[in-house]
Design goal:
- With 406 residues, the protein is α/β, with parallel strands linked by helices.
- It is 40% helix and 12% strand.
- A seven-stranded mixed β-sheet has the order 2-8-7-6-5-3-4, sandwiched between helices.
- Helix 7 (174-184) links the parallel strand 5 and strand 6.
- Helix 2 runs antiparallel to helix 8 and helix 8 crosses helix 12 (375-401).
- The longest helix is centred in the last third of the chain and has 39 residues, at 257-295.
- It starts with a helix and ends in a 5-residue tail after the last helix.
Length: 406
């Protein structure tokens, strides 16, 4: 390491500042406290209703179901527990396409910037004979409603649009999309893993038919999620799994009571604290962006600045490779984008869909702040990123001046 890099800001004997809240969130201690008894003395199978142990677990699962439903304005019986948002997205896309194909509706519409599990589910259905339309987004990351309306035809089965983007944080106009889909008789699905518990979601007002959630994105446990499945008007889909018929036949398999309880607790806390937490995160986000722009005016914000998650920034550092900047800032825990594609060397397909040139897409970082982020941590992040970017830029200039390939 050169002397310039050795002088970069550090926090001796301290863990890196966590700035990857879109990848996952730490388990809230209050959630853990509610979960712990269900790992030990309260061990009953929630599907064994013939004795007290099973009935106790069943009651806990149903309380959790009600808490998750309340977070999005749904009825408890409209919540189907899954292993996470990936399974929920697969169940929604594949289940809807397979059911509605028999009715002559074999067309799937989604955005080119959707999460990989939505895109791969659509691709899998294309192999089964469905037609798939992947729509472009604007440079701000938002879908054009006229483009969406033009893509829907009489054979469209389902439209899938992510509520809040996992990389660039933009919030799509769900209510407008829902009204359009309902008018056309098309199922409307949204991957709300990033949105639920952070911004208000109302499945009735937004006319959502299917919605996916993941507990570990809202300070709950990993390994549990849910699919909202509308009852009236009824959203009909085919299940993916065969088995004992749990979850009203939509998702067979024994439910993990501790994870369900944790999911419910996390949803309940999020609903109670969202109104106060969102403004605090927005203030931290603005502090972080203003601090960086004051010292690095060339920093570019990717995605719409107003319509985005309170705790998300996706920033381009022109001329500074993102992976090199991450390596130069060991005191920060951040990423280039989705945790599902973090190991990929190529620039994000999401940023390329925004029209960013490959060089800038490869110089962009995702910064996620959340419930436990402090002002001092934001200030340290500004200091570290500015110092790292400047050191890398100097290194690049020295290398170029020496006539060596950069």
């Amino acid at each position: 390491m050169t002397a310039a890099f050795a002088r970069l800001p550090r926090r001796p004997n301290a863990a890196p500042v966590y700035l990857d809240y879109q990848a996952t969130t730490p388990l809230d201690r209050r959630v853990l406290d509610e979960m712990l008894p269900w790992f030990t003395e309260k061990f009953g199978n929630p599907h064994s209703a013939s004795h007290a142990y099973g009935r106790e677990a069943e009651a806990a699962v149903e309380r959790a179901r009600a808490d998750v439903a309340a977070l999005i304005g749904a009825e408890p019986r409209e919540i189907v527990f899954t292993s996470g948002a990936t399974e929920a997205n697969n169940l929604a896309i594949k289940g809807a396409a397979r059911f509605r194909r028999a009715q002559g509706r074999d067309h799937i519409v989604a955005l080119a910037t959707e999460h990989k599990c939505v895109l791969e589910s659509a691709r899998a259905m294309a192999h089964e004979g469905c037609r798939v339309s992947l729509l472009p987004v604007g440079s701000d990351g938002l879908v054009d409603l006229d483009t969406l309306a033009a893509a829907i035809d009489e054979r469209t089965a389902i439209v899938s649009v992510m509520a809040a983007h996992n990389e660039i944080g933009v919030l799509q106009p769900l209510a407008e999309i829902g009204a359009l889909c309902r008018e056309r008789g098309v199922l409307f699905h949204s991957d709300a893993a990033q949105a639920a518990g952070k911004v208000a979601i109302d499945v009735e007002a937004m006319k959502l038919d299917l919605l996916s959630i993941s507990a570990h994105k809202l300070y709950g446990p990993k390994g549990i999620g849910a699919l909202y499945l509308r009852r009236r008007p009824r959203a009909r889909i085919e299940p993916l799994l065969d088995g004992g018929g749990q979850e009203r036949g939509m998702r067979s398999g024994t439910l993990p009571t501790p994870l369900c309880v944790g999911f419910g607790a996390a949803a309940r806390i999020a609903e109670a604290e969202m109104a106060s937490e969102a403004p605090r995160l927005l203030g931290l986000r603005r502090r972080l962006l203003a601090g960086l722009r004051a010292q690095l005016p060339e920093v570019r914000l990717n995605g719409d600045e107003a319509r985005r998650l309170p705790g998300n920034l996706n920033l381009g550092f022109p001329g500074v490779p993102a992976l090199a900047l991450i390596e130069a800032c060991p005191g920060l825990a951040l990423s280039t984008g989705s945790a599902c594609t973090a190991a990929e060397v190529e620039p994000s397909y999401v940023l390329r869909a925004l029209g960013l040139p490959e060089a800038l897409a490869g110089a962009s970082l995702r910064l996620g702040i959340g419930r436990y982020t402090t002002e001092s941590e934001v200030d340290f992040a500004v200091e570290a990123l500015v110092a790292g970017a400047r050191a890398l830029a100097r290194s690049e200039r020295v290398t170029a001046a020496a006539g060596r390939p950069t």
